[in-house]
Design brief:
about 190 residues; alpha+beta; Protein Transport Mog1p, Chain A; three-stranded antiparallel beta sheet; 11 strands
Length: about 190
């Protein structure tokens, strides 16, 4: 039983077949165009959201993903706490008049921004790295430890000084899983002149 040979197709049906095929092709092409446009818009909006720069006092920064932001006149803080009680705090402090030298600035900031909130912190930083320039500011990093629920945690204080002004950022975290977000935030941190 032969259903239909190509040569025996009625020309009316042949034209209808080609017309329907063209409509289907056009419809699929329009869907593809809309999909490409939609994807391009999503990529553009995603780029804008990641490129958004916020500022506080002399700092310019990108808000870290998934952190909760809280702001007071004297500081901006980003916090994250996981279900396993591991946590990370990133805090930017308002600028203050500088003291006689960089070391005195760092120790005053350590006492105020590390020892007060973390009562079980090292009285002095374990290591201090200084004299790096960061956006024209002298940068000093002080690193130490503190204990939270009998767990040893890390605290880093980045102090910046320019002319007669000093400002700092602190990073406190209880697990190495926060090392990546802390590094990313600190690398994108800038200071205004």
């Amino acid at each position: 039983m032969v259903l239909c040979k190509k040569s025996s197709i009625n020309p009316v049906f042949k034209g209808l077949y080609y017309s329907v095929t063209a409509c289907i092709f056009t419809f699929k092409f329009q869907i593809l165009k809309r999909y490409i446009l939609f994807t391009a818009v999503l990529i553009f909006l995603n780029t804008i959201s990641f490129a958004q720069t916020d500022s506080f006092d002399v700092f310019k920064y990108h808000t870290p993903d998934f952190f909760i932001k809280s702001e007071l006149p004297s500081r901006v803080q980003f916090s994250m706490k996981n279900n396993d009680t591991s946590f990370c705090l990133i805090t930017l402090y308002k600028s203050l008049p500088a003291q006689a030298d960089v070391r005195k600035d760092v120790m005053a900031q350590w006492n105020e921004y590390v020892l007060k909130p973390f009562s079980k912190a090292d009285k002095k930083p374990g290591r201090i790295y200084t004299q790096q320039l960061w956006d024209g500011w002298v940068s000093t990093v002080a690193i130490g430890n503190f204990y939270q629920n009998k767990k040893k945690c890390v605290v880093m204080l980045s102090s910046f000084r320019k002319s007669k002004t000093t400002v700092c950022a602190s990073y406190a975290f209880s697990s190495n899983i926060f090392k990546g977000p802390v590094e990313k935030f600190s690398q994108q941190l800038h200071l205004q002149h």
